[in-house]
TrEMBL record:
Signal peptide: 1-27
Principal location listed in the UniProt entry: endoplasmic reticulum
Phylogenetic placement of the source organism: Eukaryota, Metazoa, Chordata, Craniata, Vertebrata
Record family assignment: Belongs to the cytochrome P450 family.
Biological process, per Gene Ontology: organic acid metabolic process; terpenoid metabolic process; xenobiotic metabolic process
Compartments it resides in: Endoplasmic reticulum membrane; Microsome membrane
CDD domains per the UniProt record, alphabetical: CYP2C-like
Name of the featured protein: unspecific monooxygenase
Keywords, alphabetical: Endoplasmic reticulum, Heme, Iron, Membrane, Metal-binding, Microsome, Monooxygenase, Oxidoreductase, Signal
Length: 490
């Protein structure tokens, strides 16, 4: 190529880059790696592990910096102080949901997880109120979880101590708790319809954490024109939507306005109360999206944590032995564990917390967005800008958790062996967008794990030192490797 042509192209590219960087509406964004036109910083980001890339950037640019995913900037907050300052101290301004094209294609801005503005506020408020009506955080829902834990034990006994993959068995337990709240009934562990649903959710979880989905989220035009796993994702969600819509129709036919039985009934009654309001957020479309949000989030996060937790306990039998000793001493063998036991079981409580801290399930959180122009640490972040908050940077802070890459329940114990809380523990996020089901999830994790360890010895098929607990995907979430184990009755 003629050197003059090359020079002109280079100068044109530099001019385009300069104009792009100086374009109006960018505000005074924090510094960050220099983006290329159109593709931004994508060549500098490892799409297999975005969280690690953001940690590396923070070592150069500090706790607040800007990264371009394609043409759109995202402000990244790294470190407990920056995350807390934004999500707690400036909670309202940082309470928007950031750009997430794949989810937007599925949910269309409806529901509770990916909605914004008044729609999000009203649906979230209603969901929290309804979950509390069903006893979230109270004895009523605890009894439901305990009963499901007993059903889980009976299902595990059926394996007869033979090697098994715990994936779907562990998914059914939290699924049935959520189903009792949403649909008023639970399902048998061999119910094929529900097994199909579990398979769809698990496949979607893996796809959402794949490198390809990170690319699709950065370049949404690919969604419409290229084949790929995103099409399988859409197909799976269509299956789930069809199932939930059928359940909603059944509820419409059997609804008793004076005697609501579950979440769908409460929503339908709210719809009837607001039918004269043309601006009402309570519509069938929003009900469908909200149920899927609560259903999916309530199943996948808890079941993945349980599955990852058992794998870690296989890797660390000395921890498992200490937990089981505490269970024997405090609970015994003749009654079910309950939440009151937790205050007398500091080592077990610390182990459950350490599992959540260690696996760092959603490393970069779901994307936030600022709801107005925000001045933050001498930078001006324009309204609508996506904000990524690194939960990893808090959960793996080496000042709060010495040797954070090592699994150690001692991270949550004081010198006397008592349980020690930490503000850095934020697996459910913090602030106005934190998980609405946090209380239920904490209860399930404690009761399911303690009930399993009360009734079974965990036997690995491999030597503990050979067990690999490295996640097989690190996109939206950390996905544990598949494994088998034996549940030996005690």
């Amino acid at each position: 190529m003629d050197p003059a042509v090359v020079l002109v192209l280079c100068l044109s590219s530099l001019l385009l880059l300069f104009l792009w960087r100086q374009s109006p509406g960018r505000g005074k964004l924090p510094p960050g790696p220099t983006p290329l036109p159109i593709i931004g910083n994508i060549l500098q980001v490892d799409v297999k592990n975005i969280g690690k890339s953001l940690t590396n950037f923070s070592k150069v640019y500090g706790p607040v910096f800007t990264v371009y995913f394609g043409m759109k900037p995202a402000v990244v907050l790294h470190g407990y102080e920056a995350v807390k300052e934004a999500l707690i101290d400036h909670g309202e301004e940082f309470s928007g949901r950031g750009h997430f094209p794949v989810a937007e294609r599925i949910n269309k801005g409806l529901g509770i997880i990916f909605s914004n503005g008044d729609r999000w506020k009203e649906i979230r408020r209603f969901t929290l109120m309804t979950l509390r009506n069903f006893g979230m955080g109270k004895r009523r829902i605890e009894e439901c979880v305990q009963e499901e834990a007993r059903c889980l034990v009976e299902e595990l006994r059926k394996t007869k101590a033979s090697p098994c993959d715990p994936l779907f068995i562990l998914s059914f337990a939290p699924c049935n708790v959520i189903c009792s709240i949403i649909f008023r009934n639970r399902f048998d562990y061999v119910d094929q319809t529900l097994l199909n649903m579990m398979e769809k959710f698990d496949e979607n979880h893996r796809i959402m954490s794949s490198p390809w989905l990170q690319v699709c989220n950065n370049f949404p035009a690919l969604i419409d024109y290229l084949p790929g796993s995103h099409n399988k994702l859409f197909k799976n969600f269509a299956y789930v939507k069809s199932y939930v819509l059928e359940k909603i129709k059944e509820h419409q036919e059997s609804l008793d306005m004076n005697n609501p039985q579950d979440f769908i009934d409460y929503f339908l009654i709210k719809m009837e109360q607001e039918k004269q309001n043309p601006q009402s957020k309570f519509t069938i479309e929003n009900l469908l999206a909200t149920v899927i949000d609560v259903f999916g989030a309530g199943i996948e996060t808890t079941s993945t944590t349980l599955r990852y937790g058992l794998l870690i306990l296989l890797k660390h039998p000395e921890v498992t032995a200490k937990v089981q000793e505490e269970i024997d001493r405090v609970v015994g063998r003749h009654r079910s564990p309950c939440m009151q036991d937790r205050s007398h079981m500091p080592y077990t409580d610390a182990t459950v917390h350490e599992i959540q801290r260690y696996i760092d399930l959603v490393p970069t959180n779901l994307p936030h967005a600022v709801t107005c122009d925000v001045k933050f640490r001498n930078y001006l972040i324009p309204k609508g800008t996506t904000v990524l908050t690194s939960l990893t940077s808090a959960l793996h802070d080496d000042r709060e958790f010495p040797n954070p890459e090592r699994f150690d329940p001692g991270h949550f114990l004081d010198e006397s062996g008592n349980f020690k809380k930490s503000d850095y523990f934020m697996p459910f996020s913090i602030g106005k967008r934190m998980c609405v089901g946090e209380g239920l999830a904490r209860m399930e994790l404690f009761l399911f794990l303690t009930t399993i360890l009360q009734n079974f010895t965990l036997k690995s098929l491999a030597d503990p030192k050979d067990i690999d607990i490295t996640p097989i995907a690190s996109g939206l979430a950390h996905v544990p490797p598949s494994y088998q184990l034996c549940f030996i009755p005690v």
